[in-house]
Amino acid sequence: MPLEPQLKQQLESLAHLIRRDSIDLTTQSGSGHPTTCMSAADIMSWVFFREIRLDQHNLDHPLADKYIFSKGHAAPLLYALMYRLGYLEADELKSFREIGSRLEGHPTLRLPGVVAATGSLGQGLSVAAGMAEVYQREGRDQKVYVLMGDGEINEGQVWEAAMLAGSRKLSNLIGIVDRNRIQQSNFCDQIVDAEPLDEKFRSFGWETVRINGHDFDAIAEAFAKARANTDKPFMIVADTEKGYGVSFLSGQLKRHGVALSAAEKEQAYAELPVADDLDIAALTQSRKDFGPVAELQPVRLSYSLSSADFDPAKKYAARAAYGDALKKLGGLSERIWVLDGDTSNSTYSDRFAGAYPDRHLECGIAEQNLVSAAVGVAATGKVAVSNSFARFFERAYDQIEMGAYSQANFKIVGSHVGISIGEDGASQMAMADCGFMRAIPDAVVLSPSDYVSAFKLTQALLEHEGFCYMRTFRGAASVLYSADESFPLGDYKVLRQSESDAAVVLATGYVVHEALKAADKLAESGLNVRVIDVYSLKPFNNDKLRAECESLGIKHVFTLEDHYATGGLGDLALDALNGSGIRVEKVAVQGWPESGSPEALLAKYGIDAAALYARVKQVLS
Ligand SMILES: Cc1ncc(C[n+]2csc(CCOP(=O)(O)OP(=O)(O)O)c2C)c(N)n1
After folding, report:
1. For 161-225, where are the E strands, in sequence order?
2. Which residues pair with 536 in a beta bridge?
3. Adjacent-strand bridge partners of 239
4. 599 included as an active-site residue
5. Which of 281, 409, 481, 571 keeps 20 to 30 A from 212, CA to CA?
6. 588 vs 562: CA distance, rounded Å
């Protein structure tokens, strides 16, 4: 049924007003993407004024519908909508793209209602799928709306998310592709031909409609269908014009990401008529009162590890201890969710999956989608833990960084680290993960060396609010700690010490055991070295290490790690001891690793006890 003509005119005026605002914001800042906003202004005005259910006071209300501007460069459109809905004051609009502003160039968590930072294209649908999965499983009446660009869907991750959402039948997920046929450097079909776009989504298990995205009758009908749809995710492919409404912008390739001059703005306004009787309040159906919200409390897991949990005489892989911890601790909080990338029987997260299938999501071999979906799960208030081989998370580094930037309470646990995995060879070994993860601001990076530390660090990881990465090794190693040992973040453990230590050895993970063997052999030869297990690679207590080394009066610190020489423990020590005059000798993997037994590889690449022994002897003699 067509809309009442009066309502339709009002909506058209509203969309023009939103276009004007988007132009105004970008002209005032001298940068941004006005034409990107203009193509989507009609459909997003409908979403924000007629369709979505927002809390009138609290844009982060946990019971409200959620929205993601996956094409984050349409930020001015979001800010204009927020302003016209009454969530932003006119004064604040003036701060767009200025330092300190909540209105950043692309949406960030500084602005209430934003569930994940966007701007690195292709990630929003995955975040939305993670959120929709939680809402659907919990039987919550909440929808998630995602706006994407038609260039953005070049990203493979979009199709990873589309496949997951289709197979999970996420009927509370509504996607919009703004099919304006222009991307950054060229027309879409000159870059890659995405047609038939609606059929593509249909073949991925979606319900789809294709509409004229500037026709409010068609828009209203599309959303009526979306509301009636109950068993599939719903995609609206909206054919639009980039720069719609303004003659010198519409369909113009060269106007992507170009702000209008003041004179052009005046001209554009003249072509975007807004009725004098526009009554925004009367159009607004989206603001509701969802009532008060209980504040989320930090997750605290009271579990006392005891010798009944493990056999101190046995050897364990860190991943096995992690799997045990995930299962035991996972029972203590309903907020813990685990996501996998088809490796759960290798990472041992299957121990959780078997015990709590209601809180487990298998995402398949699609690590980028896995990470962003976890960010979405976390955005619903869960503690979201993703698992795969550490190496395969490296392909999702951008997604991890965006998740951390989004202040998401998500965790990555990467198994099979270093050359100690052995025969599978270099493609399966994470050799640079510590560097990648340590570089992320506010990240917590953990590296256990035995059963007890892996178990206790899993607890720390689950309780920590924010992004945390833990690397777990594959091979079995003996138990170093007693069950009551504690592992505060940022600290380290001294495992061998004497009053006559001539050097300090910092080691982490699997090769802590090699460092201990080397230290014992050095002691037999009359040379004592202090051995420190660096289980917390970030945060790290630089001052404590420096004071400890200076009190010994030593000249050398050796670092031993199953990792490349760049970015890991060696660099951590260089930072901590910078300017102290103490030399850092890195013992790490150089060059491309290969297949072989773990022992043979550790020996060949010079990170076993014998190699460390020889290096210490050579440097100190
Ligand atoms: C992952 C990623 N690659 C490249 C860019 C740079 N970039 C910003 S906008 C854009 C074009 C997007 O086109 P489209 O999705 O069609 O959006 P439109 O502006 O046409 O609505 C590109 C390539 C980016 N932001 N993210």
Report:
1. 173-179, 207-212
2. 446
3. 179, 212
4. no
5. 281
6. 6
CB-based contact 257:30 (threshold 8 Å): no
Residue in 308, 303, 306, 326 with CA at minimum distance from that of residue 482: 306
Cβ atoms of 135 and 167 closer than 8 Å: no
Q: What is the residue whose two structure tokens read 């060229």?
A: 186
Tokens of 469: 């990465």
CB of 400 closer than 6 angstroms to any ligand 1 atom: no
611: its two tokens? 């190699």
Q: Which of 367, 401, 514, 585 is catalytic?
A: 367
Q: Does domain 493-620 have CATH number 3.30.450.20?
A: no
CB 23 within 8 A of CB 248: no
CB-CB contact of 65 with 139 (8 Å): no
Domain ranges of the chain: 43-242, 315-478, 493-620
With a CB cutoff of 8 Å and minimum separation 6, the contacts of 413 are 322, 347, 349, 385, 386, 387, 458, 461, 469, 470, 471, 472
Amino acid at 506: L
Q: What is the pTM of this model?
A: 0.98
Q: For residue 252, count CB atoms less than 10 angstroms from its CB and return exposed for 0-12, middle for 13-18, buried for 19 or more.
A: middle
Average pLDDT by consecutive 10-residue portion of the chain (621 residues)? 96 98 98 98 98 98 98 98 98 98 98 98 98 98 98 98 98 98 97 97 98 98 96 98 98 97 98 98 97 94 95 96 98 98 96 98 98 98 98 98 98 98 96 98 98 98 98 97 98 97 98 98 98 98 97 97 98 97 97 97 98 98 87
Determine the topology of domain 315-478 in CATH. Answer: Rossmann fold (3.40.50)
Domain 43-242 belongs in CATH node 3.40.1390.20: no
Atom of ligand 1 nearest to the CA of 182: 20
Of 126, 184, 193, the residue with max ligand 1 atoms within 8 A of its CB, to mutate for a pocket test, comes to 184
User: How distant is the alpha carbon of residue 9 from its chain centre?
Assistant: 41
315-478 and 43-242 share a CATH fold: yes
Assess contact for 143 and 67: CB atoms under 8 A. Answer: no
Listing DSSP states for 16-53 in one string gives: HHHHHHHHHHHHHHT-S-HHHHHHHHHHHHHIIIII--
Residue with token string 């006005």: 34
d(CA 243, CA 121): 20
Sheet strands (E) in 510-596: 529-533, 536-538, 556-564, 583-589
Q: For the CA atoms of the chain, what is the radius of gyration?
A: 28
DSSP-based three-state secondary structure for 355: helix
Residue type, 617: K
Handedness of CA 396, 399, 405, 410 (dihedral sign): negative
What is the rounded distance in angstroms from the CA atom of residue 177 to the CA atom of residue 235?
8
